[in-house]
Structures are given as C-alpha cells and as structure tokens.
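DATA SHEET
Item: assembly model
Revision: 1
Owner: S.N.
Input lines:
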Amino acid sequence: MTEEAIETEPKAPPPPRLRVTKGTPWRIDAGRRAKWSAPEFISANAVEVRQIGDPVLHVPAKKPRLSRTEIEALVARMFASMVVAHGIGIAAPQIGVPLRVVIMDVDEAGIIAVEPKVEWTSAEEEETTEGCLSIRGMYGVLDRPLAARLVANDIAGKRFTLVGDEFGAQCMLHETDHLDGLLYVDRLKSRDDLHTVEPEEEEPVSA
Ligand SMILES: [Zn+2]
C-alpha cells in the first residue's frame, strides 16, 4: 500500500461502545428502526414514560414469561417511547411494565436484553453526567465504572455477553438498575450533584 493510499483511506469510525462478545442477541436492525420510528407507528405505540415517584420505577421487576410475539410487541412499544423521548436506552418498567427487559441503544446498537445481569465492572471509574427519561429536566453528576460486562438472554432465551465502554457501560448499569427499582438519583453522593437542565442547555443523554 502506498502512502497516498493511506492518506486517502477513509478514517475508521470509532469502535462501538457496546460490543457483543458471545452469542447473538436480537437486535433492532435498520428495517425495524425505520418502521418503529415512523410517525404512524409512534402515534399508535409510544406511551408517556413513567416519572420518578411512580411505584413501578421503585420496585424490582420480574422475570418475563412471555411468548416471542409478546416480547416483540413489548420491545416495539419500548422503542417507540424511547424515540419520542430521545433516549439511548429504556427499561420496560419505564413504560409501566414491571418485567426484566431493556433496550440498550448507545451508538444505535439496538440490543434487546432479557434478564440482564452485570457480571463485572472495572475498578477504574470516571465522573460523568447522567440523565433519565423518568427524571425529566434534570441531570446528575456521578462516578461510573469505565467498562462493564453483562450477561443476558435474547428473546428466544439464549445467553449472550455484552461488553460496554464509557457510555456503553453507563447505559448497561443504568438500565439494569431500573430493573432493580433504582434510579441514578439513588446513587448520588449528595443532593448537590443533581442539577436542573437550563432552558438554553441541551438535554443530557438519557436512558
Ligand atoms: Zn433511566
């Protein structure tokens, strides 16, 4: 390869912050993403995201006992609700369904995880900002591990492993917390770490 060839080579995109390392989870592919983001689909399926104080957000969710068709319908409603609220992840309790199902959509990964469990987090942490679709207009500042690994089932009950870096790790931890009835505000060291989004500010990344 000549030097010119190297120069003209398109810059490689940064690696995705959510990576499947074992198994093959069901993903929201480009076709479903387009269909489930369409205005008609959204008006028929999106629901208001439940807000802090709603009991469903503060109790552990249960193992889903649903058919594949039922899980797909649930995931479609979750996705449409997430799109409307501009989220990068959502957990079933946030649409009022107390079951252990999440979507993790950092870098449009579109990964659906059933009964996810965090099995490892890095000792190294980083101070980060975090928003939640269930705590509108606010964001928090907290320490989160830089990397994490999660095991979960796909919608057919097969196991897969997912590794997350930075936002990817944060999204995993945030969504699995939802299934345990925890919100990021429960992890803040002090009330001073909770801030209001000012009107001229951009909304923080929320999940
Ligand atoms: Zn959240």
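QC remark: The longest helix spans residues 68-84.
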